[in-house]
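User: For my dataset I need records formatted as: sequence, then structure tokens, nothing else. Please produce one.
Assistant:
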Amino acid sequence: MDRIRIGLIGLGTIGTGVAKTLLENTALLEQRLGFSLELTSIADIDIEKDRGIAIPRDMLTTDAYSLINSPDIDIIVELIGGIEPARSFILDALKSGKHVVTANKALLASKGKELFDAAQTYGKDLYYEASVGGGVPIIKALRESLVANNFIFIYGILNGTCNFILTEMNEKGSTFEDTLKAAQEFGYAEANPAMDIEGIDSAHKLAIITSLAYGVPPDMSGIYVEGITNLSTLDVGYARELGYKVKLLAHAIDRGDRVEARVHPTLVPFNYLLSKVDGVFNAFYVRGDIVDSTLFYGRGAGMMPTASAVVSDIADIGRNILAGIAGRIPHLGYRKDLPRPKRYMPIDDITTNYYLRIQVLDKPGVLAKIAGILGERDISIVSVIQKGVLMNGYVSIVMLTHEARESDIRKAVDTIEALDEVGGKPVVIRVEDKNLKKNS
């Protein structure tokens, strides 16, 4: 039986899952593939730690370059994360004639063009299904299964940590701080959770998604990012009263020659499928012009779901090796030599609906002043609710707007904040609700 030999760099959580899968599901993989996936060597800085699986001692090394330079290895799997030395490992592996599998979303979002160019130069495959969505096969779907489609939009819940926090805040009324602490205790959040809760992890994944869907090179600078750290239980509760859940939602929307790419808290109606994606689960709502609407749902992180995606990539490359081909599918879904005129749309240019919460003194004429300021910026109001008295005589006015331009909303909010009757900075959360759209 033919063999595909694999070198694994990184034996952390995901690496351990990959090793476990390759070592324990050998027979199943052989039956399905018709060839064997042989884990030959594993490199990690700590080869003494017990990972809970039986790994032959002679398979372990602390020298990653012994794998990269070995003539007996066909595929290098990089699972150490971060930018360096992961970038150098991948570039050197490609140069040495190895195909590469990675789950490194941060690296691909920042250095993806360099890496994919290198893969093409050296005639090797660089696969990355596990970089977005864990065990949810969204990369393969966008690049292959939905190849006939222009993508009208892609909405995603891309970070399980944030989704868990927001689910708890919605269902239990817990504060952000208390829920983050619980997420850390359950192992859903890192000791330093900034990458997750600031929206950066979701933006890394969105950079890859927009490249696949619209052909723009991965570019974090073109993506608007806003996390959930300033979200209050009060606004989550008011949103629920209005018929919405708050989700950290990634948006990729086709706007002709431009692409909206943004990550931020978003009010999503209860009757939307995305609002029912709770806990640590991820989901991708994709609308194509041919297929119409599709939903991809599953565990977006974790040892075994992510390992499933990594092994899928290994199997695909193994098939390519035995067929004597590489580069059968463009790495980012588009031929490199084709012009790609789309560019990212600045956040100020987007048009959507908004939730506003403004603390005002409970006195006549204040609402009229606020409505007048909004009207001057061509912002019309769908509904207004005045909530109970807060401290120091202030009350909360909660508004939903019709579609408005982001730059107009920002200017109006700045003017409203400067009013003597307004206390503190108004809260602004974007709304995704087709029933509020002008063309609905």
